[in-house]
Design a protein that fits this description.
This protein has 77 residues and is an alpha+beta fold. The protein has a domain of 50 residues. The protein is built from two helices and four strands. A two-stranded antiparallel sheet has the order 1-2. A two-stranded antiparallel sheet has the order 3-4. β3 and β4 form a beta hairpin.
């Protein structure tokens, strides 16, 4: 299975295979691809290290939607 292994395009070191989910025609299917580079001397590793983590909030509404609901409630009073 050597042909199925992924390598880092920058340093050439082997990387893990990861599975991402992709929705096609209403069905979620696996999408196999290369994982992140774990070589600390690689430029790709340093780039991944500096990316900020996404912010997760408890409120799933888009920004500004909460303000609209509050304004509507104030108008009713």
């Amino acid at each position: 299975m050597a042909s199925d292994e992924y390598v880092c395009p920058v340093c050439g070191q082997p990387v893990d295979t990861v599975v991402h989910r992709h929705k096609t025609l209403g069905v979620v299917v696996p999408l196999w691809g290369p994982g992140p580079c774990k070589n600390p001397e690689c430029e790709a590793y340093k780039a991944e290290e500096t990316e900020p983590a996404p912010v997760v909030t408890a409120d799933s509404r888009p920004p500004g939607a909460a303000d609209t609901d509050t304004d509507a409630a104030a108008e009713r009073d």
